[in-house]
Amino acid sequence: MNWKQKKHCEALLSRERGFVKKIWGTCHTVCLAYPNIYRIGMANLGFHAVYKIFNELPSFLCERVFLPVSGDDAEFVTGAAETVSLENQRPVRDFDILAVSISFENDYPSVLKLLERSGIPLTSKERDSRHPLVIGGGIALTLNPEPLADYFDLFILGEAEEALPRFAAAFSEARQLELDKKTLLLEAQKKVPGVYVPSLYAVNYSRQGKIRDILPLADGLPGKIQISSIKNINAFSTTEVISSRDAEMGDMFLVEVNRGCPHRCRFCAAGHVYAPPRFRSYKEIISVVDDGLRIKKKIGLVGTAVSDHPDLVKICQYIVNQGAQAGIGSLRLDRINETTVGLIKECGIETVALAPEAGSQRLRDFLRKGISLDDILNAARCLIEKEIFNLRLYFMLGLPTEEEEDIDAMIDLVKKIQHTVIGHTSGKRKFRRITLSLNQFIPKARTPLQWCALANVQDVGKKIKKINRAFRQDRQIHVIADVPKWNYVQALLSLGDRRVGDILLAVHLRNGNWLQALKDVNIHPDFYVYRQKDLDEIMPWDIVDIGMSKKKLLQEYEEAFSAHHGTTL
What we know:
Blueprint: H1 3-14, E1 16-17, E2 28-37, H2 38-41, H3 45-55, E3 60-67, H4 73-77, E4 97-101, H5 108-117, E5 133-137, H6 139-143, E6 154-156, H7 160-176, H8 181-191, E7 195-196, E8 201-205, E9 211-216, E10 225-226, E11 243-244, E12 253-256, E13 258-259, H9 269-273, E14 278-279, H10 282-293, E15 298-302, H11 312-321, E16 325-328, H12 338-346, E17 351-357, H13 361-366, H14 373-385, E18 390-397, H15 404-423, E19 433-440, H16 457-471, E20 477-481, H17 484-495, H18 500-509, H19 514-520, H20 526-529, E21 544-545, H21 550-564
Parallel strand pairs: 2-3, 2-4, 4-5, 5-6, 10-21, 12-15, 15-16, 17-18, 18-19, 19-20
Antiparallel strand pairs: 1-11, 6-7, 8-9, 13-14
Helix pairs in contact: 3-7, 5-18, 7-8, 10-11, 11-12, 14-15, 16-17, 18-19
């Protein structure tokens, strides 16, 4: 570690509140890594939860590590720096466990970068008991861990609050018995629910390249990894543990109010992985809100269905009554009314995000979005009447069954929203802006649309240009969109199997040059990205059972296409 790194760590810690710094050498040590920069990682409540769980165990010490910000990479290239933890500035390779929390597939290449910079062999088979045990968790891995299977010793999938303490107990026991790494992994796979050790399972392929079967390599191992949702989420709180103004949304104290979603839109992984929907009680939420208000004067309410919380109005009113503000990421269009919008205004919210997802009613029904044109226009009207003059609209492009008329319908819908809001600002404060956020549909594992192919990124790029042209002269409508080529990469990592790990290695060796890496490996990425999957096909993620039956997902898939595309599957 160099002087610059030490000063950087000390500066970050000096602006934090709530971090834990235990005495080194008295506990099992865990380095908790987020494979992105500090600002992004510290806004992730799952990351906070894991930090809290480990540090509340008397026999464990947990510290954090992040990737350096752009510009600091040169120090690693020249060998002038090594990756160290934030709290005690210890090298990552000195820890007993390296735990990586992954929320987004596009962070996968950073895992390899982190391992290399820490002096840890990249693959599990290269590591032994001298190296940290490399474990992974998070929503991205729970959806599909297979592209990173070769690089992790063990995954802890699903919700961490019950599984992590059980794993920690198994790890402590293994250390007391002086078990080697292989035996430790075998015992963890047998005893700890939610644990998946990929090296203990063999994936066999057919001549066509599809998965033929996934089989355990030892007696006594489960045929599938069973994951179950925590039934009583009031038994624990998931909140901001470490407060820092340097984090994204650093002005807010983040509080999770729910998991799962009752609507289960066909494209949405969170609604299916976190089923059934669960809402924390008003009493429990207010308790943590009170804690948060001692630190900050703005509470960020986080969840997959915040606007469906039965006590949302009551919660927001409580926050306002304390002289504070509330932040809500997005609201379902059919949940917006005068009461909720009035509270939003009192909470100081100036921009509201809405997600029609598609321009035509046909496509919204295909997605099982459950909202109508009237819902959308009524929501816009309510917001403008309460003088919320900034709207952010989320739409997806490249949806299955999408036609050119659907793009025209999206353009028309945005114009109708604009016309509605302008009609209600006549003679009043001037309407500011509609931000139109365009995102390509990415098929996600464990959803009814997991069998679908990604739309051609060049075709999607043309649709983005068409929408841009439609609003180019309109200063009130601002269009932002993903870069299509990165949608291809995300789809590859979302839908890939273990062989995609070879592509990740090539990308790592090529310093992030995806184009060259794809040429280097004998794997055709279109096989995963642009291929419509067979309905009876074994998916890479089928080794993990999250409790949502594949039969149910298939039924939803067939209903979607038979109702909206006129086909019988």
